[in-house]
C-alpha cells in the first residue's frame, strides 16, 4: 500500500512533471517514510537505489559546509574580504555576503551564452556589474566566487575539499562532481543537442568544467538521507556546533528572502516548500527538482529528489508537488 507521500509523487510522474522521484523524511534516529518511483528517463529503466541525481543548487549548501569547515580550521573567517584569498577581486565583498547572497553580484545571468571558456566566464564575474544596496539577490555568480575562495583558503581543488571535508567524514560514498554513471536524466538540451545524463545540467557549470561552487554535485537518495540525518543531529563531525548554529540562523533580518549562511530560511509567504513547516526551518532547492529541508526544533529532515527538467525545463508543476509533499510530510 502506497503512503500519502508516494501517492503525491506518483501523481507528479503521471502528470509528467518528472520521470522519477525519490524521497526520505525522518529524524537523526531513523526514517519515517522513504521511497523511489519512476524511470531514469521517460520510458527508460526503473530508478534504483544507486541512481544518482543532479543536485543543481543543493550543491550550494554543501559548498557552504566546506567554507564552514575551513572556518572551523582557521583557514578563513566568514567576515574575511574576498580579496584576502583572491587579491584581484573587490575588497568590499566579504565571504559572509557571498554566503547570504548580499554581495551585489547579479543572479540569473546566462554568462555561458557569451563566455565560452572558464577563464572568460570568471573574468566576466570579476569585472561585471553589481548592486550596492545590500539587498538579497540570489546569485549563482556569488557561489562560483565562493568556490574559488574555498580553493584558495583550503589550498586544494574544490572537488577534493568536498570529498575531504564533507563526503568522506559523512560517509557519502556516491556524492561528488560529475560526470557520473547511473544518473537520472535531466534536460533534452538544445545547446548540447542531446539528453543530458550524468553530466551537470547547469550551463554555466558546463563552461566551468563541471566543478564549481553553485552546481555540479551528484548524489544518491541514501547519501542525501545520511547527510540530512547528520545535519538533523547537529552536523557533527562536519561542523562545530556553534558554526552550524550560525549558518542555519537568519542572517538577513528584515530582508526578503531570508537567508542563512548558504541556506534559505522559511519565508511566509513565498517559501518553495509551503508554509506548514516551523518558522525556524531552513533548507535549499535545486533547479533540477531537488530539495533538502530541516526543522531543527523537531529534529526533522525532508529530502526530495526529482528530475523535473526532463525532458524540458518548461514543464510546469514542480512548485505544486513540492508544497503538497512538504505539507503532507510535516504531518508524519
From TrEMBL:
Organism per entry: Amycolatopsis dendrobii
Keyword field contains Hydrolase: yes
Keyword Coiled coil attributed: no
Residue ranges constituting the Beta-lactamase-related domain according to the UniProt record: 15-316
Protein name stated in the entry: Beta-lactamase family protein
InterPro entries per record: Beta-lactam-related, Beta-lactam/transpept-like, Diverse_Enzym_Activities
Keywords, alphabetical: Hydrolase
GO MF annotations, alphabetized: hydrolase activity
Pfam families: Beta-lactamase
Amino acid at each position: 500500500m502506497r503512503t500519502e507521500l508516494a501517492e503525491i509523487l506518483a501523481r507528479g510522474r503521471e502528470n509528467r512533471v518528472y520521470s522519477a522521484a525519490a524521497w526520505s523524511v525522518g529524524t537523526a534516529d531513523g526514517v519515517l517514510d522513504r521511497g523511489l518511483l519512476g524511470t531514469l528517463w521517460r520510458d527508460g529503466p526503473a530508478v534504483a537505489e544507486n541512481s544518482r541525481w543532479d543536485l543543481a543548487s543543493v550543491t550550494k549548501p554543501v559548498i557552504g559546509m566546506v567554507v564552514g569547515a575551513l572556518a572551523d580550521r582557521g583557514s578563513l573567517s566568514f567576515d574575511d574580504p574576498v580579496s584576502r584569498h583572491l587579491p584581484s577581486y573587490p575588497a568590499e565583498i566579504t565571504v559572509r555576503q557571498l554566503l547570504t547572497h548580499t554581495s551585489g553580484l547579479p543572479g540569473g545571468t546566462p554568462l555561458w551564452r557569451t563566455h565560452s571558456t572558464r577563464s572568460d566566464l570568471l573574468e566576466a564575474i570579476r569585472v561585471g556589474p553589481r548592486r550596492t544596496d545590500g539587498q538579497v539577490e540570489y546569485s549563482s555568480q556569488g557561489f562560483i566566487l565562493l568556490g574559488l575562495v574555498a580553493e584558495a583558503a583550503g589550498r586544494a581543488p574544490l572537488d577534493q575539499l568536498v570529498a575531504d571535508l564533507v563526503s568522506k567524514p559523512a560517509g557519502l560514498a556516491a556524492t561528488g562532481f560529475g560526470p557520473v554513471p547511473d544518473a537520472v536524466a535531466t534536460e533534452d538540451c538544445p545547446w548540447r543537442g542531446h539528453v543530458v545524463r550524468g553530466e551537470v545540467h547547469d550551463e554555466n557549470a558546463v563552461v566551468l568544467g563541471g566543478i564549481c561552487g553553485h552546481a555540479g554535485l551528484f548524489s544518491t537518495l541514501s547519501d542525501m538521507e545520511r547527510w540530512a540525518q547528520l545535519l538533523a543531529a547537529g552536523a557533527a563531525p562536519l561542523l562545530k556546533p556553534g558554526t552550524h548554529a550560525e549558518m542555519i540562523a537568519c542572517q538577513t533580518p528584515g530582508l526578503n528572502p531570508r537567508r542563512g549562511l548558504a541556506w534559505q530560511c522559511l519565508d511566509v509567504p513565498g517559501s518553495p516548500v509551503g508554509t506548514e513547516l516551523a518558522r525556524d526551518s531552513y533548507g535549499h532547492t535545486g533547479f533540477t527538482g531537488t530539495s533538502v529541508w530541516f526543522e531543527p526544533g523537531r529534529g526533522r529532515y525532508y529530502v526530495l529528489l526529482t528530475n523535473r527538467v526532463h525532458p524540458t525545463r518548461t514543464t510546469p508543476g514542480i512548485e505544486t508537488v513540492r508544497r503538497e509533499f512538504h505539507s503532507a510530510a510535516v504531518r508524519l
